[in-house]
């Protein structure tokens, strides 16, 4: 049975957000749902079991017309899908999913209004050429294999922990020797996209400065020193419906935010208009390359 207000029509507004602990983010998540009115939301790093997620948010989500599925584990990882467009054929994890050493709660998928939606939290990789880095590449290969099986209408949404290109970090030189930007990671992401997926944000805003993640430390957010690692990848039938794609930077401001901002994609219609790649735009002046370092970098 659908909760009040739910509907089985296809999604119009789709969002993905790494909330970095849903328990800590409840005071921000529920008002954000009320303000932005997304039809489908993919969450990452919920850091709760599925049962605990339901206990925490089930009644509030039902009141707002959302069905939900959560694939989680206590303290770490965890993904969820909230939907007002139906929630069918739910699958936790990936076929032949690698573990570290056991399978982690990093992927959940469901069909929402005729679109197969994957909420994913790709492993970090930690250090290039480490065991966790190789696990990351293997995990991405398993995701690609799952997406390649179809159906044709697909969305892969989440924290990819990869900046697709140098334009997606504030300064490529600052990331030398770090994960998220290495050629094997970017090649693995490109292989995933080769399964027929479009990076809708970059396709819509090819030359814009767009970030979705800013480290909590060293004033990185206020200086707009970030990375674009949260992506919405859409198959051609879905990508052709995109009318707006933007980062909700407002959700990264204020008290107790996640270190990620939501990415919002509007299909078929744009309720707020085609309002630009980042809303609101950063107020800080653009920092010249070579003038800032990552907080963890050696001085």
UniProtKB/TrEMBL annotation:
<dbReference type="InterPro" id="IPR036691">
    <property type="entry name" value="Endo/exonu/phosph_ase_sf"/>
</dbReference>
<feature type="active site" description="Proton acceptor">
    <location>
        <position position="260"/>
    </location>
</feature>
<feature type="binding site">
    <location>
        <position position="18"/>
    </location>
    <ligand>
        <name>Mg(2+)</name>
    </ligand>
</feature>
<feature type="site" description="Transition state stabilizer">
    <location>
        <position position="161"/>
    </location>
</feature>
<protein>
    <submittedName>
        <fullName>Exodeoxyribonuclease III</fullName>
        <ecNumber>3.1.11.2</ecNumber>
    </submittedName>
</protein>
<keyword id="KW-0378">Hydrolase</keyword>
<feature type="binding site">
    <location>
        <position position="259"/>
    </location>
    <ligand>
        <name>Mg(2+)</name>
    </ligand>
</feature>
<dbReference type="Pfam" id="PF03372">
    <property type="entry name" value="Exo_endo_phos"/>
</dbReference>
<feature type="domain" description="Endonuclease/exonuclease/phosphatase">
    <location>
        <begin position="15"/>
        <end position="260"/>
    </location>
</feature>
<feature type="binding site">
    <location>
        <position position="159"/>
    </location>
    <ligand>
        <name>Mg(2+)</name>
    </ligand>
</feature>
<feature type="binding site">
    <location>
        <position position="45"/>
    </location>
    <ligand>
        <name>Mg(2+)</name>
    </ligand>
</feature>
<dbReference type="InterPro" id="IPR005135">
    <property type="entry name" value="Endo/exonuclease/phosphatase"/>
</dbReference>
<keyword id="KW-0460">Magnesium</keyword>
<dbReference type="InterPro" id="IPR004808">
    <property type="entry name" value="AP_endonuc_1"/>
</dbReference>
<dbReference type="GO" id="GO:0046872">
    <property type="term" value="F:metal ion binding"/>
</dbReference>
<feature type="binding site">
    <location>
        <position position="161"/>
    </location>
    <ligand>
        <name>Mg(2+)</name>
    </ligand>
</feature>
<feature type="active site" description="Proton donor/acceptor">
    <location>
        <position position="159"/>
    </location>
</feature>
<keyword id="KW-0479">Metal-binding</keyword>
<feature type="region of interest" description="Disordered">
    <location>
        <begin position="249"/>
        <end position="299"/>
    </location>
</feature>
<dbReference type="GO" id="GO:0006281">
    <property type="term" value="P:DNA repair"/>
</dbReference>
<feature type="site" description="Important for catalytic activity">
    <location>
        <position position="230"/>
    </location>
</feature>
<feature type="binding site">
    <location>
        <position position="260"/>
    </location>
    <ligand>
        <name>Mg(2+)</name>
    </ligand>
</feature>
<feature type="active site">
    <location>
        <position position="121"/>
    </location>
</feature>
<keyword id="KW-0464">Manganese</keyword>
<dbReference type="GO" id="GO:0008311">
    <property type="term" value="F:double-stranded DNA 3'-5' DNA exonuclease activity"/>
</dbReference>
<dbReference type="InterPro" id="IPR020847">
    <property type="entry name" value="AP_endonuclease_F1_BS"/>
</dbReference>
<dbReference type="GO" id="GO:0003677">
    <property type="term" value="F:DNA binding"/>
</dbReference>
<feature type="compositionally biased region" description="Polar residues">
    <location>
        <begin position="285"/>
        <end position="299"/>
    </location>
</feature>
<feature type="site" description="Interaction with DNA substrate">
    <location>
        <position position="260"/>
    </location>
</feature>
<dbReference type="GO" id="GO:0004519">
    <property type="term" value="F:endonuclease activity"/>
</dbReference>
<dbReference type="InterPro" id="IPR037493">
    <property type="entry name" value="ExoIII-like"/>
</dbReference>
<comment type="similarity">
    <text>Belongs to the DNA repair enzymes AP/ExoA family.</text>
</comment>
């Amino acid at each position: 049975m659908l909760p009040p207000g739910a509907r089985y029509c296809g999604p119009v507004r789709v969002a993905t957000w790494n909330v970095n602990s849903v328990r800590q983010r409840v005071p921000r998540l529920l008002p954000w749902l009320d303000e932005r009115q997304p039809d489908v939301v993919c969450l990452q790093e919920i850091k709760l079991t599925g049962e605990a997620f339901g206990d925490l948010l089930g009644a509030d989500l039902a009141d707002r017309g959302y069905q939900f599925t959560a694939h989680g584990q206590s303290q770490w990882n965890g993904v969820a899908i909230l939907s007002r467009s139906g929630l069918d054929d739910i699958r936790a994890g990936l076929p032949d999913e690698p573990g570290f050493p056991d399978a982690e709660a990093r992927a959940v998928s469901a069909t929402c209004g005729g679109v197969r939606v994957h909420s994913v939290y790709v492993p970090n990789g930690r250090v290039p050429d480490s065991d966790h880095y190789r696990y990351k590449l293997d995990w991405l290969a398993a995701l690609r294999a799952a997406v390649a099986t179809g159906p044709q209408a697909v969305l892969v949404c989440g924290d990819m922990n990869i900046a697709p290109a140098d334009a997606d970090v504030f300064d490529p030189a600052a990331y030398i020797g770090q994960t998220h930007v290495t050629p094997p990671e970017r090649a693995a992401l490109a292989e995933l996209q080769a399964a027929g997926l479009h990076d809708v944000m970059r396709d819509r805003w090819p030359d814009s400065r767009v970030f979705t993640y800013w480290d909590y430390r060293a004033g990185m957010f206020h200086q707009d020193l970030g990375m674009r690692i949260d992506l919405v990848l859409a198959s051609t039938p879905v990508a052709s419906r995109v009318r707006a794609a933007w980062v909700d930077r407002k959700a990264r401001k204020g008290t107790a935010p996640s270190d990620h901002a939501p990415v919002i994609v509007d299909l078929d219609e744009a309720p707020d208009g085609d309002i630009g790649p980042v809303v609101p735009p950063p107020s800080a002046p653009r920092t010249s390359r070579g003038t800032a370092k990552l907080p963890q970098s050696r001085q």
